[in-house]
Amino acid sequence: MNASKTTTVEVRLPSRMGFEKVAMSTASAVAKLMGFRDDRIEDLKTAVAEACINAIEHGNRLNEKLSVGVILSAHEGALEVKVIDDGKGITQRPAKPDIDRKMHGEEDPRGMGMFLIQALVDEAEWVAGSGGKSSYVRLMIRLDKDTE
To answer: How many CB atoms lie within 10 A of CB 74?
Structure first.
């Protein structure tokens, strides 16, 4: 891939569980073309899947009339992924999950997606929609040439 300019790939997904796999495969293919290591590609795939599932379930509320947009922008040394939905976005960050309590069944095992995303990518930003604009999460993962 030519690293001196931005290359953009866009995918539109139905708001139906399972279609996050299309976004995972697309992100994986773009990251491979950019030269990302396999472990970073796996991190990216998991983060993209979580973001898409959140968009389908929470943003679009499983409304199959709505779609989820995924925009992958390959920049020099980094891949940016925006996952866009028609929801209002989050207005308040959930409390940090207690992993031990979740592992022991003392808390609902769900609700860790945002924290998982943040742990897997270099940057994660949630932007709430307003004035008719869609909400999105922006993920950034950097191609670290020193660790290849």
So the answer is: 21
Other CB atoms within a 10 A radius of the CB of residue 94 amount to 11
Residue with tokens 């999950």: 97
Rounded to whole angstroms, the Cα distance separating 140 from 124 reads 7
Look up residue 146 and give its DSSP letter.
G
What's the angle, vertex CA 134, arms to CA 29 and CA 73, rounded to 5? Answer: 25
Domains in the chain, CATH or no CATH each: 7-147 (3.30.565.10)
Ramachandran sector of residue 93 (left: φ over 0; alpha: ψ -120 to 50; beta: rest): beta
- Reading the block at residue 43, the tokens are 């991190």
**Whether pLDDT at 148 is above 70:** no
- What pTM did the predictor assign? 0.84
Tens digits of residue pLDDT in 78-131: 999 999 999 887 755 555 655 565 566 666 555 678 888 999 999 999 998 887
